[in-house]
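Example 3.
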Amino acid sequence: MQSTIRSSDLAHLAHVELLTPTPDESLRFFADVFGMTETGRHGESVYLRGWDDYEHHTLKLTASRIAGMGHFAYRASSPEALERRVRVIEASGFGERWTDGDLGHGRAYAFTTPDGHHMEIYYETEWYQPPPELKPALKNQAQRFPARGANVRRLDHMNLLTSDVAALRRFMEDVVGLRTTEMIVLDSRQEAGGWVTCNNKSYDLAFTLDHYGAMGRFHHVTYAVDSREDVLRAADIFLEAGVHIETGPHKHAIQQTFFLYVYEPGGNRVEVANAGARLVLAPDWQPIVWTEAERRKGQAWGLKTIESFHTHGTPPIDQYEGPRKK
Amino acid sequence: MQSTIRSSDLAHLAHVELLTPTPDESLRFFADVFGMTETGRHGESVYLRGWDDYEHHTLKLTASRIAGMGHFAYRASSPEALERRVRVIEASGFGERWTDGDLGHGRAYAFTTPDGHHMEIYYETEWYQPPPELKPALKNQAQRFPARGANVRRLDHMNLLTSDVAALRRFMEDVVGLRTTEMIVLDSRQEAGGWVTCNNKSYDLAFTLDHYGAMGRFHHVTYAVDSREDVLRAADIFLEAGVHIETGPHKHAIQQTFFLYVYEPGGNRVEVANAGARLVLAPDWQPIVWTEAERRKGQAWGLKTIESFHTHGTPPIDQYEGPRKK
Amino acid sequence: MQSTIRSSDLAHLAHVELLTPTPDESLRFFADVFGMTETGRHGESVYLRGWDDYEHHTLKLTASRIAGMGHFAYRASSPEALERRVRVIEASGFGERWTDGDLGHGRAYAFTTPDGHHMEIYYETEWYQPPPELKPALKNQAQRFPARGANVRRLDHMNLLTSDVAALRRFMEDVVGLRTTEMIVLDSRQEAGGWVTCNNKSYDLAFTLDHYGAMGRFHHVTYAVDSREDVLRAADIFLEAGVHIETGPHKHAIQQTFFLYVYEPGGNRVEVANAGARLVLAPDWQPIVWTEAERRKGQAWGLKTIESFHTHGTPPIDQYEGPRKK
Amino acid sequence: MQSTIRSSDLAHLAHVELLTPTPDESLRFFADVFGMTETGRHGESVYLRGWDDYEHHTLKLTASRIAGMGHFAYRASSPEALERRVRVIEASGFGERWTDGDLGHGRAYAFTTPDGHHMEIYYETEWYQPPPELKPALKNQAQRFPARGANVRRLDHMNLLTSDVAALRRFMEDVVGLRTTEMIVLDSRQEAGGWVTCNNKSYDLAFTLDHYGAMGRFHHVTYAVDSREDVLRAADIFLEAGVHIETGPHKHAIQQTFFLYVYEPGGNRVEVANAGARLVLAPDWQPIVWTEAERRKGQAWGLKTIESFHTHGTPPIDQYEGPRKK
């Protein structure tokens, strides 16, 4: 673990591709219930963004036989930072290839994590230009506030399942260049969870142990809203829309996120959380290490962690076809 | 104006020293009404911090004949960044000297802005260690939530008055190494306001034109609370405490801050604002330029800007003894 | 002023009819921006309700040459209470006639205030039955939460302009059977405003002096939302929709309502307010009397009352054709 | 169940007496953590109120060997209503006697429920007069906002455990004169819970089945705060103060209350809830009947009801010395 911040080559988590076996229902969920804006279609994919996301999209929804996460991407801090980071990744042996990019962004470098999750990094992007009916009243805002559904503001963070938390953490630190802000270390010294970031958000990526020992599975993606009140209201809206609420709203002890987890129609877990006031501004922030005893206390106000939170991922374990580490 | 972010040598706005002719009343205001925690006293100064401020103090309250701002400081990103930045400042001709530091932080480099405001930068700091009765329940938090007064969370930003906005903006960009996210440019092409930052907060420093042409005056310092509801509650609390509310709560068009301005007993303007969800994550964010016509619309929801917002600063103009640019 | 509560013959403010010269735009405003649900059309009128209103409608929107308020109605507490109250009204000389009722409610007794506002009272009503797509998840709720626009919850209160506040107050107390909870009395002893109620809401009807001396004009109608945060969000939504925001959000000193006033496209003033926690439960509540000096302090947190708040009403004064008392 | 509202002889729930084996700790909890104001002491009792409670006290805290509820009281709507209601109670056979009153209120009539809970009704009361340092800025408010702890606003409702829900409901309807707004009826036709009110609050008293068959036990008393955000903040404050959080914050399906249950140091369950926007204004509101299947869904957003919610009451069952009905 590094003890002082290094200037990050990456600027922020940029987008995630979700695979859904029910593309029409998933699209309706993200557009009408989450309140996102569709910005394009290509092949089997539909592209969407929250009202404060500045890029062309932060969510790529792709029809697929089985639910899961196709890939996720970070935007680099500059063209030079992109090249510099690619060299590190290539040297790690996990690099794959340059792609031509996608709707909304230029060429990207693809690689995998040690657990097999697909990642990309890129710099060239298309700033979102709202059509006249979506032009905001205030010019420092990406798009008009939709006033529809949960009104998710912007992509906040991703959570991965992994067969080896420590290996994935070291990869994220040493190869991807993120820094760890919080982590769980069991009494056995095994790491059970990690939270990492490339900027002042206290995390934009998390990963927790897959209880099935499966590799490369997806836990959830989170969109931020403006307040805890907005999260509570989202719960009302999910209830009315018949969306499965897994757990929440409640406050995590770790990172203090005010959370609400639901399953989108395709089966992927998605979260609405309070973008909140918590930032890590200190350059010498030391990772907070949570013990097994501390985790047994449940969430911040005592809610016990729901069992499915440790078992449900996508692809669902009964459709998972990869290797297992236990 | 730079078009892509450079890795900042500075990590964040660190503290501000307020001068007050009524030190006892000011202390009671910040401790009881603002809800801050006192962490030390030295000479004519008392040191305080918000419950989520990680350093020894973010506010130094110093008894003085006339109200005003003594100095303000940024913390550097690393020891190397500190040295690097000091070299740039020295080269600019605005450098002053190394100091031995203060309660809570190590040696600092002092300099002035072209307008005469006193600034410092430093790296070595003392992380706040709460006494037993202030130990938080969650170990990722600096201190127990006080549940007293407005419960301000952390230092958010500073606002300076200046006789020359453009000159101060260029100094902050080129010498201090901040980047501009929003600005006001009048029809005459004169700049009337600038908002700059060294991190993902959309600003941590602002400056606006001094209508009296005075130099080096102070406009306000802002502490963040967690929600717009907390700002509204703070208004109730200020009302009950007999604190002068200048304007707000309302939402600024610029930066979309949900604001509330009051005068502390010493006469300095202080603000409570929603720390909120707004971040600048894009590395190639282009400054938003507001025109005179746009500013005439008032604040976001139409509130007219109160006259005193353009005239009241500290030292008050009738006690100001420096030069004037008009 | 009565000093102890009498059992009220009236249960609650039930609906208001707004006259609009721009019926299509007004309908779009109430349906899409306010978030109300249309429940019927008849002749030149469209009927709407908030998601928690239990009756067929609380707003009747009627096309008209000039903006204004057609009539407003209270629902009686029982059939007997209705008859009892009608007898009092008839005895007062202000009674008019029994009507056959309207969409959604049975026969009603029509009368006028001394200032000429049209009122009705009735008992028989049609409880709203939501169609399948609007059925709520929780059976103790009238309708599914719309998740659209400002999501106004229910009709809250009405405000009338009057040429004679004291006369209207006495009429509301003695003839209509409401009780006064707050009032403004000028240094001249002239009453300038009154707030009355028939239930535990601290007011469901208010009236203030018409500065033009006109008779029977309308000031505003208010719909309640759940929280102050919802009022703030409504302000964002009005801003985006190009709706004229007259004043607010801010907190009234009188009644402590957290208010936001806008003009619907037809020109009528409408308010969104926090339904809030304030109730008058005491049976011997004594009216709060505000003096001229107290009113000069502005609203709760110091906002000066905007001039148009005293002059704008509907019909607009330049289209008003009735008598004037000064 | 009556189908139309009768004018209630009772105005509102007025106060509750809690018995505590740890009087000092309980007082510190209610004063410092709940944020209540002490208004008097007499014998083994301390009297407290929330900042918007208009009477001398709403909580009487009495030192006792075993935790529990001493008595609770309603204030009548008028002197005549008091006499009228007393006659009904006396006729029921559950009447006890007139008492001389207590600190803050005049003579009261004492009686018991069929389950043995002690109740009183009275009319004469002492309106709270704040000392200078607690005088509010707005004269329509009982007391200055304390800005301390959870800042509970006012007594909201009581919840009793009972060995016979149906019998208690009928008693509350027919003898006490409350009306039922919601209830739980099991598949066996046994009633398992009831919610009743004497005014526009959707309930001010509730009772649920005692799983031990004990008689006259106490479930909880609830104080209202202004917003859901205030309930969340209260959870933070309880966490910091080491108070046992039993369950919540979450939203009940029944009555839609946003709840948070904790145990005060003496062992009594107390709740902080959102005073909220929900009122029953309809005079012909029909009781909502919840089925066993509906209750199995848990709370509004799916939280399972915690086991202790059905078993913990005061006196604790292992200290309970009365009869059992099963």
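Chain D touches chain C through 45 residues (CB under 8 Å). The longest helix of chain D spans residues 79-92.
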